[in-house]
Write a structure and sequence with these properties.
Structural class: mainly beta
Keywords: Calcium, Disulfide bond, Metal-binding, Oxidoreductase, PQQ, Signal
Strand content: 35-45%
GO cellular component, one term: membrane
CATH architecture: 8 Propeller
Radius of gyration: 23 Å
Family: Belongs to the bacterial PQQ dehydrogenase family.
InterPro entries: ADHI (IPR034119), PQQ_b-propeller_rpt (IPR018391), PQQ_MeOH/EtOH_DH (IPR017512), PQQ_rpt_dom (IPR002372), Quinoprotein_ADH-like_sf (IPR011047)
Protein name: PQQ-dependent dehydrogenase, methanol/ethanol family
Helix content: under 10%
Largest sheet: 6 strands, antiparallel
Shape: globular
CATH topology: Methanol Dehydrogenase, Chain A
Number of strands: 40
């Protein structure tokens, strides 16, 4: 009787462990594990590399669809979500603040949550969502009306819901949250509306705020409900009261490196775009900001574009890796330069252009870390010399404000030592206009039109050596590239707006496989194993900023069709 009771207790305990959910240890191991995808970036470091080699150049001709699932309805628009996979379930967000739970092997829908959005939301660049976070038995994602929602992974029922900020003031949320050291880290979207960028840490089980850290100089941080120090020094790099509507939205989310204990968030453009209104460096806009997760304090920052006058958000992901015995991080910035910084101190180690035409600076001074500005390429002051009070001198600048690289995440392969960067070659005519802040209104003070630079391509996937800046190979694309990249074994996977999911040899760039998904791909692929088989998934659905803001480029790609689906592949036996 005692043995039977003991056996039952052991079984019960084992069952409880099996149903434990996602732990901090699992998240820390995400980059190495192959049977789950628990983080945006396939690991908090953001390398987007999988050690899986089951799908390779020798057998990829047998890679075929296993299933496809449509998001359905009339709510198409851009689909930029990276799916997550755990315990046989896939969790994937969709446009208009929706999230689906699917059977990862079959694609069968298990449940759907559709957030009720109010009238008057103000998303800058389409009604997209880039993904969720997993913790314990919860799946957590953000909404276009600036809320966080935590759902039970098994049932889809709401466990907690917290407001990030006031959507009527221009705040929204589109990024995938980040789990680091047992905390849920999130940013804010809304840089075009004069919001204040910040990073927040919550208890992922309850949604309770732990700390908040503004990334515009002059604003107070808080920890456990108490003041935790002002960010920077008020008016040190912002004149007058311009810091009060400073922008610098942390709209792409962050990465985290356990070796440094730091979370890295890119910050967006300062507000307004008209840089003559806010003369100074405008910290911490257009920067990489490293935040100590335990304290909520800024450990270091590096500003990619001081006094940004071109909307060159510095929001792109900071990917950490080992190079020459150091822990470093790399960032392909919207401004056209690729940066390598010491991950612990922020010291600039290398910087070079990764697109063919950069007009706003001649280079980056490695000693000072500052750009060598081309003064004549800054849009003119409408109230100064050469301005007529209504419009300043127009200039043609490259890259265009949509960037040498935008939201589409790059990948790093430890096997090749190369970064695989989705790039775009375009420029813009841009001019400044007078502007005053009004709550909830666009806060630009600029006009613009985007133009392609070359006849044969706009997009190009480039394999780049972070030590030398040399491009090992590139695959050109007619339309802009707007989806992310995955490396798995010796292959690189990425999608195109024309609808193709492609694979190339990571060393040579030879395209070895492609599949037409029926709509443009503006999302990053993932891979994992289930039941001993390797699977590959990507979300398909054309949209995002290009058709909304792309000027002449938008006209060039207006033949592309919208959609909304998840495609999953495996090797045909």
């Amino acid at each position: 009787m005692k043995r039977s009771l003991l056996s039952l207790l052991v079984l019960a305990a084992t069952a409880h462990v099996g149903a434990q959910g996602v732990t901090d240890a699992m998240i820390a191991d995400d980059a190495k594990s192959t049977n789950n995808v628990l983080s945006w970036g396939l690991g908090t470091q953001g390398q987007r590399h999988s050690p899986l080699t089951g799908i390779n150049a020798k057998n990829i001709n047998r890679l075929t669809p296993a299933w496809s699932m449509s998001f359905g309805g009339e709510k198409q628009r851009g689909q930029q979500s990276q799916p997550l996979v755990h315990n046989g379930k896939m969790f994937v967000t969709a446009s208009y603040s929706r999230i689906f739970a699917l059977d990862a092997k079959t694609g069968n829908k298990l449940w759907k949550y559709e957030h009720r959005l109010p009238e008057g939301i103000m998303p800058c660049c389409d009604v997209i969502n880039r993904g969720a976070a997993l913790y314990d038995n919860l799946v957590i994602f953000g909404t276009l009306d600036a809320q966080l929602v935590a759902l039970d992974q098994d049932t889809g029922k709401v466990v907690w819901r917290e407001k990030i900020d006031d959507y009527s003031a221009g705040y929204s949320y589109t990024a995938a949250p980040l789990i680091a050291e047992g905390l849920l880290l999130t940013g804010v979207s809304g840089g075009e509306f004069g919001v204040i960028g910040r990073v927040e840490a919550r208890d992922p089980k309850t949604g309770k705020m732990v700390w908040t850290r503004p990334v515009v100089e002059g604003h107070m941080g808080y920890k456990d409900g108490k003041e935790n120090g002002i960010s920077g020094t008020t008016n040190a790099s912002w004149p007058g009261e311009t810091w009060k509507t400073g922008g610098a939205a942390t709209w792409l989310g962050g990465t985290y490196d356990p070796k440094t204990g730091l979370a890295y968030f890119g910050t967006g453009n300062p507000g307004p775009w008209n840089s003559h209104v806010r003369k100074g460096d405008n910290l911490y806009s257009a920067s990489t900001v490293a935040i100590e997760v335990k304290t909520g304090q800024i450990k270091w920052h590096y500003q990619n574009t001081p006094n940004d006058g071109w909307d060159y958000d510095g929001v792109n992901e900071f990917v950490t890796f080992d190079m020459d015995g150091k822990r470093v991080g790399a960032k392909a910035d919207r401004n056209g330069f690729f940066y390598v910084n010491d991950a612990a101190t922020g010291k600039l180690l290398n910087a070079f252009p990764f697109v063919k035409k950069v007009t706003w600076a001649t280079g980056i001074d490695l000693k000072t870390g500052r750009p060598n500005f081309v003064d004549d390429n800054r849009p003119g002051d409408p109230t100064g010399a050469g301005g007529d009070g209504a419009k300043g001198k127009a200039v043609f600048s490259a890259p265009g404000f949509l960037g040498g690289k935008n939201q589409m995440p790059m990948a790093y392969s430890p096997k090749t030592g190369l970064f695989y960067v989705p790039t775009n070659e375009w420029g813009m005519e841009i001019w400044n206009e007078p502007i005053t802040y009004k709550k909830g209104a666009a806060f630009l003070g600029a006009g613009f039109t985007i133009k392609p630079l070359f006849d044969d391509h706009i997009g190009s996937l480039r394999a780049i050596d972070p030590k030398t800046g040399k491009v090992a190979w590139e695959v050109k694309n007619s339309a802009p590239l707007w989806g992310g990249v995955l490396t798995a074994g010796d292959l690189v996977f990425w999608g195109t707006p024309e609808g193709f999911l492609k694979a190339a040899d990571a060393k040579t760039g030879k395209v070895v496989w492609q599949f037409q998904t029926g709509s443009g791909i503006v999302a990053p692929p993932i891979t994992w194993t289930e039941g001993g088989e390797q699977y590959l998934s990507v979300v398909s659905g054309w949209g995002g900023a290009v058709p909304l803001w792309g000027g002449e480029v938008a006209k060039k790609v207006n033949f592309l069709e919208q959609g909304g689906s998840v495609w999953t592949f495996k090797l045909m036996k």
